[in-house]
């Protein structure tokens, strides 16, 4: 079993899809119980069975959004 932080923290969970390919769920940990881990990420809420998990860890918050670049009049 993987060690996860308390719900509310940002995590990345690497797991195996039914096709055999590995993928990551990155987002807020909503819950973790004996059967599965639930992560709310960009693809929505993902329920991941413990048997499919390869690795998991807490990650830092996402970086702040960058300010938009302003184009000068002579740029084309």
What does the model show?
InterPro entries: SH3_Rv0428c. Residues 5-57 form the Histone acetyltransferase Rv0428c-like SH3 domain. With 76 residues, this protein is an all-beta fold. The protein has a domain at 10-58: SH3 type barrels. It is built from no helices and five strands. Strands 4-3-2-1-5 form a five-stranded antiparallel β-sheet, with no helix packed on it. A hairpin with a 3-residue loop joins strand 2 (22-32) and strand 3.
What layout of secondary structure does this protein have?
Blueprint: E1 10-16, E2 22-32, E3 36-41, E4 44-49, E5 53-58
CATH class of the domain at 10-58: Mainly Beta
Give the count of helical stretches.
0
Question: Which band does the percent of strand residues land in?
Answer: over 45%
Shape: elongated
Low-confidence stretches: none
| Euclidean distance between termini CA atoms | 55 Å
The CATH architecture classification of the domain at 10-58 is Roll
- Using DSSP, what is the number of strands? 5
Mean pLDDT score? 91
Class from secondary-structure proportions: mainly beta
Helicity range: under 10%
Main sheet makeup: 5 strands, antiparallel
Overall radius of gyration: 17 Å
Query: Per CATH, what is the topology of the domain at 10-58?
Result: SH3 type barrels
User: H/E series, N to C?
Assistant: EEEEE
Q: What strand order characterises the main sheet?
A: 4-3-2-1-5
Pfam families: SH3_Rv0428c
Domain Histone acetyltransferase Rv0428c-like SH3: 5-57
Organism: Microbacterium trichothecenolyticum (Aureobacterium trichothecenolyticum)
Region (Disordered): 57-76
